[in-house]
Amino acid sequence: MRGDGVRVLIVGGGVAGLATVVALRDWGATVDVVERAPGPADSGTGIYLTGNATRMLGVLGLWEPVADTAVQIGRQRSANQRGRRLFDIDVAALWHGVGPCVSLPRAQLHRALLAGVGDVPVRWGRQPVALVWEGHRVAVEFDDGSTGRYDLVIGADGVHSTVRRLAFDGRAARSLGQYAYRWLAPRIDAEPVWSVQLGRGRQFLTIPISAEQTYCYYNDGPVADRPGWRDELAAAFTEPAAMMVKALDADDSTLHAGPNQEVVLDFWSRGPVVLIGDAAHATSPNMAQGAAMALEDAVVLATSLAASGSVTEALRGYEARRRPRTNWVLSQTHRRDKATGLPPVLRDTVLRRLGEQMFRSNYGPLFAQP
């Protein structure tokens, strides 16, 4: 069906929401976008995009502006906290024919997506406070007192989704027992390598995201913002851990900290309201699939709307097509978290022998088109 005369509300101005705007631009619908943040992201840390994510950027016509600023990652390296190598992966070869793996500042990806939406306005600092079903439409009240009626409401508003809370019985994200710190530090290695050190129930990750900057990620277990975590990180892991954490002494404005959470739902739509991206199926970040799944969701949802005879049919088709893939990612993140949480001696032995094979099997189904 065509979208002429259809009114769509997209709640969320992040990767999932903006990608959906781009995916729907030729469908013909009238699209409104609201985002609870006060304005476009001009800060943040970094993001790593695997080949299935960059493939979707190509489908959306957004690959070139991302490629112009991104660092192409050729290898992923895993070591233990003493720096002893466990296994390496040639990710350029692994994802050959799908898309390159790249990293970049998250704000730059956001700017590329914003440029792609063209003249579709984003109402910043706004979110729904009530949804009322009126047959095949939804009446939406916003926090500024304004209202609107829509044929389709897309909740693309992340792990702490307002749409999920309002439309899906207040279902909340659940804790994974992981508290993560993310920050930026100077780049010290010219080689474009994604590198992780595995400690006892902890991981320290570095990824170059520009010629000048490194994105750092530290997963510290379930306790929120423990005093002394910086000193413990520097002491427990080999370099560049101490050097990277020392960057926070000079400037901690890039530090972002919070729990890792996941979202598991029995269904993603209720009438003409549907969830996409992290609002529907957030997982542990250990496979770097959050942005990839959001981008794929946007493309598949738009394709389903164009190919179906009604919004209801389209949403059923979208979920049927996407669930096997997002369920795979969920199951693999659980397996990877379990493997890295093994006693270090056993974990290191397993990963030295089977790490490359396990890594390839984790991503194998994602090489196919979504």
Description of the molecule:
- The protein is an alpha/beta fold and 370 residues long.
- It has one domain (7-173, 261-367): FAD/NAD(P)-binding domain (3-Layer(bba) Sandwich).
- The protein contains 12 helices and 19 strands.
- It has helices at 15-23, 51-59, 63-67, 91-94, 106-116, 162-167, 229-236, 241-250, 278-281, 290-307, 311-340, 344-363, and strands spanning 7-11, 30-35, 46-49, 71-72, 75-80, 85-90, 102-105, 122-124, 128-134, 137-142, 147-150, 152-155, 174-186, 193-198, 203-208, 213-219, 256-262, 269-270, 273-275.
- It has a 7-stranded mixed sheet with strand order 6-5-14-15-16-13-17, with helices on both faces.
- A hairpin with a 4-residue loop joins β15 and β16.
- α7 packs antiparallel against α8 (241-250).
- The mean pLDDT is 95.
